[in-house]
Amino acid sequence: MATEYNECYRPQYHITPEKNWLNDPNGLVFCNGRYHVFYQYNPDTKFPGNEKYWAHVSSSDLVHWKNEGVALSPDRYGSMWSGSAVEDKNNTSGLFDGIEHGLVAFYTVTGDCQQQAMAYSADEGKTWTKYQDGAPVIASADDPLHDGDFRDPKVFWHEESGKWMMIVAGGPVRFFSSANLKEWTPEGTCQDIHTECPDLFRMRVEGSDNYKWVLSCAGVSYRIGDFRRVGKVWTFVSESEPQRFNFGPDVYAGQTFSGTGDRVIMIQWMTDVGYAMETGHITPSWSGALTLPYELTLKRSGESYEIETNPVRELATLRKAPFSLRNTVLRPDAVNSLLPLACDTCEIHARIRPDKGAGFSLAFRIGNGQKTSFTYDPVSSALVLDRTCSGRAPVERFLSRYSVGVRPPEDNTFDFRLYLDRSSVEIFAMDGRYPFTALLFPDGDSAGLSLSALFGSVTVEELSIWPLSSMYDRAEGRDAAEGLA
After folding, report:
1. What is the spatial distance between Cα 346 and Cα 322, in angstroms, rounded to a whole number?
2. Which site in 37, 298, 374, 399 is 20 to 30 Å from 231, CA atoms measured?
3. What's the structural domain count of the chain?
């Protein structure tokens, strides 16, 4: 494994830059058997800086990521801010005669104002050409709201209208349409929905042939509704109040892949924007990581809908031989059944059935007076992620607890999957209805584990702990360590 990818706190199966700054995921697109992820990048500092680039990684399996270098660099129109990418399968743009897999990227340029520009690739993302030498395809003067906050274009093909659609925000959400990806016409606006990094995608309701539209507000919250013509324009019509994507603190700027059909996969920037600029004081040579790829499922719950979030199934390829418990009863005074296990990268799958009035707590990254825990608290009937003693903190409020009230299942059995990497934890509880994502910065040798019963006995129906391989241990992963130069 390359030394640059084995430092303290370096995630071993999450996307990070070799060096310096990373923020929003951009241009997520599946094309010809490969997943492409671009992200905001500064090659000169591990803090945001004034200039942003797009860096590029790709994968055949959503697990092992190959570094493809810098895709887009600042130009006379400004820095390369966030955006999206699509495959122009039918060459609607006219840019890809004789080319089977043409990609088109859209991004915000930020000189004196925020405008939308376009680039295209005829070699599946290896090299990019800026359309019209980088001149905006939607100028700030074309913004129907003229409020200045006009950024983060997400483009998708809309079957019903036979057009490409673009959602843009920064302030209120607005839409544009195009037949050729080059000329854009204003459509509707949602004056009451304000966000940045918007995303709009259609999801099939599980177990049915029905579809709903989902409007993501920066990957933090979502609304269920419809995308339809209202009067003379296409717009989103919300049918729900905002719902949370995640109950932990560290998700932002989420974007879904285009080109994956009914399979909806999202990746987020793994941070809280309130302290994103401070984590570089802790991490050695880089700052910023992306979350695991999350697979989203839309389920009907009575008269409403909710999204369940789970890790993509491909991650199972990283598993090593597991430690397992089956049908084991734990009592509050029991000796830690997970001694002497220790790990800083692992996957844990648990099914735990507390007795009436009892709860449980799984603690990890234990040592040197540090630990983080995931608990079911029967007193408050809540799932709680506690990182108050998790190690180093970029700001004081980082050392906090995060909780969500839950209704215990009918059989009182709680299930969850937990993914621990060197500086993060991602938990998917109760079939993914309650995800938690959080950064952690414990000492490198704080790696102990414990499972305990609270206020009574619990039955561990299943507990499997898989140590995980590094994504850099395979050929494609090693390619990623070649750097961004």
Report:
1. 10
2. 298
3. 2
Task: Report the candidate in 31, 41, 47 with the shortest Cα–Cα distance to residue 72.
Answer: 41
Question: Is there a catalytic annotation at residue 24?
Answer: yes
Residue 2 has pLDDT above 70, yes or no: no
Active-site residue, selected from the candidate residues 24, 88, 272, 377: 24
pLDDT in tens, 223-237: 999 999 999 999 999
What would the two tokens of residue 156 be? Answer: 């998708």
96 and 146 share one domain: yes
CA 462 – CA 327 distance, rounded (Å): 7
Same domain, 452 and 477: no
Cβ(289)–Cβ(16) below 8 Å: yes
Confidence of residue 3 (pLDDT cuts 50, 70, 90): low
Q: Say yes or no: 335 and 257 in one domain.
A: no
The partner residues of 453 in beta bridges, in order of sequence, read: 360
Half-sphere exposure of 437 (CA within 13 A, CB side): 26
CA dist 470 and 313 (Å) reads 17
Segment 292-307 shows an average pLDDT of 95
Nearest Cα to Cα of residue 347 among 321, 329, 368: 321
Amino acid at residue number 95: L
**Structural domain that includes position 356:** 320-468
Contact in structure between 425 and 236 (CB atoms under 8 Å)? no
The answer to pTM > 0.90 is: yes
Distance CA 474, CA 24 (A): 26
Render 4-65 in DSSP notation, one character per residue: GGSSTT--SSS---SSEEEEEEEEEEEETTEEEEEEEEETT-SS--S--EEEEEEESSSSS-
